[in-house]
Amino acid sequence: MDRRYIVVFGACLTQFTVIGLLFSFGLFVKEFEAEFGWSRTLISACTALAFFMMGTLAMFGGRLNDRYGPRRVLLATGVLYGFGYALISQVAEAWQLVVIFGTFIALGLSTHDVVTLSTIGRWFASRRGIMSGVVKVGTAVGQVTLPPVAAVLIATYGWRQAVIALGVSAAVLLVIAALSMKAPPAPEGEEAKAEAAGVDFAEAKRGRIFWTMCAIQFLFFPTLMAVPFHIPVHGQDLGMTAATAATLLSVIGGASVLGRLVVGGATDRIGGRLAYSVCLIPLIISLAALTVTEAPAILFVVMALYGFGHGGLFTLVAPTVAEFFGMKAHGAIFGTVLFFGTIGGSVGPILAGAVFDWTGGYTLAFGTLAAMATIALILAISLPRRTAAPAIPAQ
Length: 395
Hints:
By secondary structure, the protein is mostly helical. The chain has 16 helices and no strands. The longest helix has 30 residues, at about 130-155. The relative contact order is 0.17.
C-alpha cells in the first residue's frame, strides 16, 4: 500500500476519535444537571477552557510537528486525551471537571488538527484541499457514530461507566492512529524549491492576510463549538428524547461529510477566498433559522444546512494557509490561526449557556453567532484572489 494512504488513515482515525468524543460530551449535560445541579454556563465553561488551551498549545504543537514529526506528538497527546476522558468518571466537584478539560482534553485537541492537516499538506502538495477534506471526513464519521454510541452507553450503564468505556477506547484508537503517522521524506528538486519559497512565520505575521485569517477564524469558530455542544440539549428542551436529540449531531456529521469533500476539492480550484464564502453563507442562513425554528422536523433540515458549512470550514483553513504562505512554516502559521479561532471558540459555548440561563432559551445566542459569522464573511471577501504560488503577505 502507498505509504501516504496509511498516513491518511492515521489522520482520519485521529479526527474520528478526538472530535467524535468531544461532540458526545453534550449528551452528558443533563446527567450533570441532574446529579450535581450544575448550570449550563458552568458546564460550557469547561469546554471553553479546553478550546482556549487547545489554541495556546496548538501553536507549540505546530512547531513540535515541524521539528519532530507527527508520530511522537500524537502518541503522547492521544494517550493523555483518552485518559482524561475516562477520568471524568471520577468527578465530584465542578473544579475537577474544569481541570480535566483544561489539561488532558485540551492536549488531545491541540494536535488533532494542526499536526494531522499540516502532515497531509506535506504529503499531498498538489491536492491539499481535497485530501484535507478526506481527512476531515473522519471527524464527520465520528460525529455521526459516536454520540449515538455514547447515548446507548449512558442509558445502559450510567454516565460514569460510559465515559470510562469511551476514554479507554479513545486511548487505544489514538495510539493506533499515531503509529500510522509519519512525516514525508525531505523534498528534493522542484519540491524543495517550492517549500523553500514559502513564507516564514516572522514574515507572515507582518502582513494583512495573516491577521485577516486570524480574525475570520475568531469570528466563525464560536459557532462551530457552541452549536454542536448545545444542540442536543436544545433538542431535548423542544421535546425530543435524548436518543433523538443525539441524531441531530449525526445529521450535522453526515452533512459535513458533503461539505468537507465539496469544499476540500473546490479549495484546490477556486482558492480560499471563495471557499470561505461557500461555507459561511449556509452557516449564516442556518443560524438565522435557529432563532425562529421550534418544530423538530424543521430542526433536522436546518442542522443539515449548518453541517455543510460546518464541515467545509474545518477543511479549508489548512490549504488556505498553504495557498497564501506555502509550507515553509505551515505548522507555526496554521497553529497560530487556530489559536485565534479557539479564543472565539472558548467564548461560544459559554455565551450560549449564559444566554440560556439568563433568558431561558437560545434565540439571542444564535442571533449573535449569526452576526459574527456575517462579519467573518465580509472579511473573507476582502482576501486576495487565488494566486498560482504562495503569496507574500500584503503590508
